[in-house]
């Protein structure tokens, strides 16, 4: 307790408070502007100012983190990334609904008074240490400088006792303010544990999806360039052997060639199921290929703002392929309309046919149930509208970014 007035644990927080006051003052004014704008936003006058203030203050944590890390060794993660939204109205709505921005605003309102209090307590500590020495120089102060507030030695020792009390008590109050600041940082600037866990799981899932897509592409390339090429070379060798052998061996060679041809056909089907080569040229080209191969005429419309990720493109491709196959086998339709569009931050696929309707997910988990499971795995959805007698409309929505 006696060492507290001269310990680094006392003066490091004071130095941190002095440095952070340079950031806390403008942040406090900005937070006050946000409060005024929030009141005026009832009349929609201050709504743009409130959106701008919340957007700016959301990043306040990283600026306060710099002096905290340098002086006190504190560190904390940035808040989770705000959901992306296109368009000014949706972006402003996302900013207003962002809890991290409002929490940062509250922290900026409390930070400046807390920093001022910490600095003031540091001044009390210095003043207390100086007052403890007052009995040694109160006489010159009285005679030379004309200080008349302390007229007797007893009063000088009373000043020293008060200084001792201030010097011993102020460091603990400084540490109390520092602990309160740390609690406010954890409560208002650090991301919520549940949100941080969700963001971590989403990032891990995106990494797994990217790794899985890369593995599938590598498997497809190995099958196409390796196994398939060897089977073709084997078929060519058998053809050469057939021309040089007698009639007794040729039937066996033809059977082997037929088996190789069937194996190549199955291998091409496997390659298309793993990673359709048509996707290498882009999703619109791949869908045009599916539409051209369909036995039912297809009206295709593709309006994409950008190129979707491999996981989203693969899901959309296989969904269209599955639905066109179902239409050809079961719907008795004469026309199919496939529409793919980007809407804000989602991708919407709609497949409509004029068949007999009555499409339902199978209880075995295949068909439409499998497509629904694929959409759910990508944070999307699949809806089926297929009354008896038709028409059937199946809509899949997927996030635009994965």
Secondary-structure blueprint:
Elements: H1 8-40, H2 47-57, H3 60-72, H4 88-97, H5 99-131, H6 134-143, H7 153-189, H8 193-244, H9 250-274, H10 283-293, E1 298-303, H11 310-331, E2 336-343, E3 346-353, H12 368-377, E4 381-385, E5 392-399
Parallel strand pairs: 1-2
Antiparallel strand pairs: 2-3, 3-5, 4-5
Helix pairs in contact: 1-2, 1-3, 1-5, 1-7, 2-5, 5-7, 8-9, 10-11, 11-12
Structure overview:
The protein has helices at 8-40, 47-57, 60-72, 88-97, 99-131, 134-143, 153-189, 193-244, 250-274, 283-293, 310-331, 368-377; strands at residues 298-303, 336-343, 346-353, 381-385, 392-399. It is α+β, with helices and mostly antiparallel strands. Strands 1-2-3-5-4 form a five-stranded mixed beta sheet. The longest helix has 52 residues, at 193-244. It is elongated, with a radius of gyration of 37 Å. The two termini are 56 Å apart. Residues 143-147 have low confidence and may be disordered.
Quick structural summary:
66% of the residues lie in helices and 9% in strands.
**What percent of the residues sit in helical stretches (DSSP H or I)?**
55-70%
Order of helices and strands: HHHHHHHHHHEHEEHEE
Percent of residues in beta strands?
A: 5-15%
Termini distance? Answer: 56 Å
Radius of gyration (Å): 37 Å
Categorize the overall geometry.
elongated
Number of helical regions: 12
Chain oligomer state: single chain
Per DSSP E runs of 2 or more residues, the count of β-strands stands at 5
Main sheet properties: 5 strands, mixed
Q: Could you report the average pLDDT, rounded to the nearest whole number?
A: 76
Secondary structural class: alpha+beta
Q: Low-confidence parts, pLDDT < 50 over ≥5 residues?
A: 143-147
